[in-house]
């Protein structure tokens, strides 16, 4: 049986055709349109056609809260203020049954079924992208919360009264460690007279925004400003992940998303180092790693969501 | 079948004889000795003898991490630096089998089995005492974490670089909302020339420290300094509970411990109010309440722990 997994991020949409053993048989990728939900659904439908195969359903991971099959809010995509009928819209375009999940949750689901979190009972997933998402496996099963909104480690407040976050609050982890926030910080510092190669690297790579590959290049170049802003993000992640570990006592933290894919285990090591001082009683087995499936975690998890839903009828 | 529940706090030790339907058949209470574990075990054994009855076992809730039946750390009790054989020590003194639990966890367990959290699948318990403890019920069962250290909402950091906490970190919820921290703050402000009735109320009531009843009296009197320090604690609780709700999306928050027992639903309402601005997507069913069993939550939960252990053999 083949199913399609779709991972809608603030920057890219990735679509993969996935087989019975969670193997990705083919994939396709495009920038996320900024014109709103219809444009996003059109792109997804095109990408689904492009990967082809003989899928029996589609799983769709989105950066928002999903409850009882509906998307409640999608804060990091422009024009998505009102609830949108994503299931109906994509089903109409493709003729396939569609199930929804949160991007951080399906990302960790992919890693738990077929990647770095396989066999672990208590796992925190931290997904670094345009924003900072996350997912949880607790007591040996995915934990979604009472109405599907669990895992939002990006909105753990680490500095009450601190930097403004896209969610309208101050001092959230995402306000320091989300790529959009880091870009805002960089531009403010450039306006204040600081120098950086980040903007030129962005232009050279033909990117609309400072993507993970832009950050990777600037950090490799030893760009001071990039290192400084990035270090502030890693610090905030450490405080926030530490707080979550004090409450949840998991023994595995999986770091996913574009930055994890680019920076690899060095990133997991840096985040581990910035987290440890904040953990009261780290599990003796506490370990940090990056997603083993790289860019494909979300696609694999979303496809698995579709598979379970098709099997369950 | 009767079992004994013991709730060891930083201020008091409470012991209760508990029946099959979680009813407290008798109880007894003493100040927590400051001379270390042996003195504490002696007092517990005296109190167990005092409540009498025909118990088949003892459940012991302590303010520390419990893993595989052993107490790993007990940070809020003086002289408890090294791991202590509490099970053997109390078993020798009473001739009864003893099982250990964390105080916040057993407090919430009591409320979940027989109090305010009965029938709820996803619950955060916040226990306000000398420190700030907590417990979790997730997906319809108590969640203890990978090595028993879950639930430490007191050590969620809300102000990176903020006030020093008893755990050695800065900016933890407990550094603002624990009674010991609030007392430290009051005394520092008095040294700086501020006035308060808290110290006189403490002396009048014959208390060693500013207990919940001392705070209750000062807040009722409209003491400015008490209100200010207390409001700072409630603010920190709001930020910390909000962070946890963003990660866990539970729909019930139970506030327990001495302050909850004294201040009642007004306290739950105040904490709800200070939490709501920090929650990204509150569950439509989100509710805050105080422990229905009052002082007895921990005793009932600890006795239940003993009951399950005796039944399981």
UniProtKB/TrEMBL annotation, chains A, B:
InterPro entries: ATPase_NBD, ROK, ROK_cs. Transmembrane segments: none annotated. It comes from the Bacteria. Belongs to the ROK (NagC/XylR) family. PANTHER family: BIFUNCTIONAL UDP-N-ACETYLGLUCOSAMINE 2-EPIMERASE_N-ACETYLMANNOSAMINE KINASE, ROK (REPRESSOR, ORF, KINASE) FAMILY. This is ROK family protein. It comes from Kineococcus halophytocola.
